[in-house]
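Researcher: Let's try something more involved. This one mixes different molecule types, so please make sure each is placed in the same coordinate frame as the others.
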Amino acid sequence: MPQLLDRRRSPRVVFIVLLAFALGPYLQSAFAGEGDEGYGNERKETTIQHDGWSEEVLDTAARIPVQQGGRLKPLLTYARFTLLRMHGYGVYRKDKGTDDERLIGPMEWLLDVLFVPEVAMHYECFRVQDAGALIDVGLEKLTKGKKKSDRYTFAQLFPAAQTIVNKAREYEKVEPRHQTGVQRQVLLMARNVDEFYRLMRFMDFARMKLDLSSSPELQRIFDGKAELRASDLLLGSEALLGRFQKLTAGSSGSGELTGEAKAIRDLLGEAEGPVSRASALRIIPPAGAHAKDEGWYSPASMSSLAPTPPEMANLLVPLERAFDARLDGAAFQTAIQDFQAQSKKLAEARDEYDKIPLEVTLFDLSPFSWALWIWVGAFIVVALSWMWPGARWLAWGAMGLLVVGLAFATYGITLRCLIREKPPVSNLYETVVFITAVAVLSSVITEWINKQRIALALAPVVGALGLFIAGQYETLDAKDTMTPLVAVLRSNFWLTTHVLTISIGYCAGLLAGLLGCVYVLSRAFDFKTKDTRYYTSLTRMTYGMLAFGLLFSLVGTILGGIWANDSWGRFWGWDPKENGALMIVLWSLVIVHGRLGGYFKAFGVAMSSIVLGIIVSFSWWGVNLLGVGLHSYGFTQGVYSGLMTFILSQCAVLVTGFFWHFFVRKEPTRLAT
Amino acid sequence: MSQTETSAKPRTLPPRPTKAPKSVGTRILDFLGSYALAMVILTMLLVLTFLGTLEQRHRGIFDVQKDYFESFFHVCDTLGFPIPLIGAVPLLALLFVNLTVGGMIRLRKGRGTIGILVAHLGIALLLIGSLVEHSLSTNGNMSLRPGETSNTFRSYYDWDVVVTEFAKDGSGERYVMPHERYADMSDGERVTFQSERLPFDLVLSGYQRNSVPRRAPGAGGIDGYLLQELEPEEKAEYNRPGVLATLVADGQRDEQILLWGMQTGPHLFEREGRQFGIDMVRKEWVIPFTLKLDRFVKDDHPGLAMAREYSSYVQKIEDGTAQSIHITMNEPLRHRGHIFYQSGYDDIGRDRNGEIIYRTVLAVSVNPADKIPEISCYVIALGLLIHFLMKLFRYIKSENRRQRHAAAA
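Model: All components are placed in one shared frame. Result:
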């Protein structure tokens, strides 16, 4: 949930936004000085001419390590999920409606926010899905001429920042499952405005140039420099404080400071604001005397170390150079490369850098996107093979594409495992990707065995649909999909045994349900009516998948109980997620016994398998929406409509099946037959 | 007679052997072991589980568990209208009978059904394990500060009324009125406890599962206070019960005392020159050894207020011998029938250096069926594997045969 919901963090947010108000005039004048006229509702033209960043800059910046959300990640990952959360898309359309309109990626967007905030503050990158939230915070005039769900700029939202924070503090007291849509939007808006503001002000320390020309004493401390930057101040902080203590030694501390001591105090006071605002990104690895610290530092938190290790303070130098050269492509590139190289060196010394390139590769290469499009292609080839049934090479081509897509998906899953040092499934997003891959693999094996081209047709549909859902979920959730695990999940043994087993059970149950759909719809639409072999194969596949699913669901459920017994001291607690798994097992057993007892024949197995698919979807996603229980770490909002769409589509197939069975079918027999 | 004539002669088929009518006992066994019964039970369990899951949106898991999964019958209204449901206890009992009769005793034994038989054995074992756990297990928790020792653990949900007689040397003799004796009392009902060694009888009445003392209007109440009933908490362990205790001596009401789970200490009184205290405390069990917490370690994810791992370094002290043990998530301590799990921690203040002091919370379980689920899991997995692999090989074989025939044709 948004940071604002974390009560320990709320005061900080409030402080920052209040600080923003206190510093409002400075903010306005600072930007006005560079051509901005303030935060009106109309777009203001800026005089800054910024043409974007080179590929080299983007590639280098992507590999800058940053610690966020309990782990070290590339800056690209941070940018990607921040833009997703604020904007709702992973890309931003810059200069919309002008000749220069183009899509920019998350890294370019973040660099704009950090280095040219004067421009970025006018990006319409704040998605507000319910205009009621704007009315709630007193920005109703913004909604004129806008859609209910639309996008706004920071400059438009900023005037209501205080109201947004006040409302958010009020709404965070409401339990998440009882929050209204407007309340959730206000909370999200508060978090986004806060984070964007902190990113905009992150480089304030690099803007800072303190004039020492009128203070020769201070110049002496800083090697004769007439202009002091944040890095100089941190590097010389020990000498400066030493000098200050020497000057004030013996004084009671109650008197007015004069002369050099006053100059030092004023200097520190002047530097405090810009440096303390550089808190959004923890990009400074601990080094020197703090090398054993696990947490990385932001420039702001680093400034509280006394003395600041020079290895750390030196990292600010290239950032200051980068800011100075923000409109000079070549110099900026050199400065960013220097910073990346220095931080990489320090991170490598801590054995923390090795996963960064892997993660950049994962997001740059996007193996899951490749797999998705390859499977779409495979489906087209399968469709062509229906038109030319004799062309076996088309079927082989489709099979080949399926395998290539599977290789991409497996590569993506493997990369994630290497980055996380975990088995393939440890959160809800990963269940989707893993289950999709297993579903395609199972279909490929089934096709290899019976060569009926049924599984061949199903596999690309399931694969593409699964990865599409994964992408949608990632967009909707807009949270890092590699977040650290809660203590109880930190067991690779149980993640491997229980979670993988139960995921395979889900996969088989869903496949059985989809095969059931194929059977029912084929019957209802008179597809291959005379081909009894087709229907026999479908029934066998459905039942086989069901049996496969029963084995994994049953064993997985009991393994989960054994894990719970070791973790929480009870085998079974009737927790919603446990109940969901049990329901899959129970219904699978009903089908198996119905089949053995002759109550379900082909049609009955197909219909009941569709019900199984619905139960699997409820267990997999639905119980998380209840927001209760010990397994609610997979909880997410907004998947309700997706789940309901799936369930209603399956119900529609069931109704179609019943209609066909009772009103259309030629030979009246029992439902079971 | 010609052959034609002979062949035209109607043939008489031997009469089909008539089946002997089944006895009542056989019919009952047929019914108890039938697939139909299995389907009905499993479906009813499914519906019960589904509704019990939905109910958890509104009520705590403890209450739902009692009503749906530990009951014989329950009327559910979570969907807005009453639905009568048979509880999990009779359904599971019937399922056990069904799978024993149909899935084991009357199952046609042979190579093809060996997997089914083994899987059914595993499920029967699992059900027996559940019954043993439900009947015989005890669950609670032990909280320890660093350096603290304890040989008791306390219940999450049950509260006893305890009368302590204090001796002059400071020791005390305890008289316990157990939770299960008074917690089910109905409105207006009274439960009396007597002991020959006490100079009074104790009558408990007006038990409230979750309550808070409030100042009584006017001059009413006990010492000006009444117990106000509250809605049960979603997490049942947070309920604070209360009860009215009446001391009766020589058949006359002597004194009335309000007992509440959150009161800070026992209510003290004197009878016949003897000092007594009465209190309402969580039910406690004594364990046959002592645990001492050396240190509790909590490790957060960097930059997050989320624990990556937490664990307790304890000493198990038994017969004068101390053994160091590390209890961590997923790695409990098992000793003499008691199992200690790292379940949580409390922040209880800061030390002189400003470091947070934590109190460890260990979940304690005494469960004779602790290992049965694991064993049954292996048995079921084995049974299903045997069965489904046999089916799979048969299927592959038949597909190959079919494809060979198709190719030959």
